[in-house]
Specification:
By secondary structure, this protein is of the alpha/beta class. The chain has one domain: Flavodoxin domain (Rossmann fold, 3-Layer(aba) Sandwich). Helix content is 35%, strand content 22%. It has four helices and six strands. Strands 1, 2, 3, 4, 5 and 6 form a six-stranded parallel sheet that branches. Strand 4, helix 3 and strand 5 form a beta-alpha-beta unit. It is globular, with a radius of gyration of 14 Å.
């Protein structure tokens, strides 16, 4: 099975709950998982890892406070991430024109650094989603054969 690093961007805790549900599902499916609630780019294993980025969007399409330094360090890094696989879950409200921009932007940055995207990002509309943790868990199960 695979080894996952779950990188969380959250202001109010919603992304943390979704990330914890994903951690539980991935563990149940036999994967090794490490959760990063205060992610530091230089401290997260990337060699032959799958990174699951689970982040909300704050303000006008910004990163949540706890992931801003990670995103800045990632952007300025020249590290080759071609051995790192990637899946992304974004949380947002589709009534905003910046719906899930943090998730979209970090995905694009990671791809530009060489990450291999395993599946289309799961974008959860919190204005519609009754149980985002369940939706994320179901998505992980659906794409498990690609992980």
């Amino acid at each position: 099975m695979s080894s996952f690093q779950i990188i969380v961007g959250s202001m109010l805790g919603g992304s943390e709950y979704v990330a914890e549900a994903c951690q539980e599902k991935l563990t149940e499916l036999g994967h090794q998982v490490e959760l990063h609630l205060q992610p530091k780019f230089d401290e997260i294993s990337n060699e032959n890892q799958t990174w699951l980025v689970c982040t909300s969007t704050y303000g006008a399409g910004d990163y949540p406070d706890n992931i801003q330094t990670f995103a800045a360090d990632l952007a300025k890094s020249d590290q080759d991430l071609s051995s790192t696989k990637l899946i992304t879950i974004g949380l947002g409200d589709s009534s905003y024109d910046t719906f899930c921009h943090a998730a979209i932007n970090i995905t694009n940055t990671l791809i530009s650094k060489g990450c291999v995207k395993l599946a289309e990002s799961k974008l959860l509309d919190m204005s519609l989603e009754l149980d985002p943790e369940e939706a994320a868990s179901e998505w992980i199960e659906e794409i498990n054969d690609r992980l």
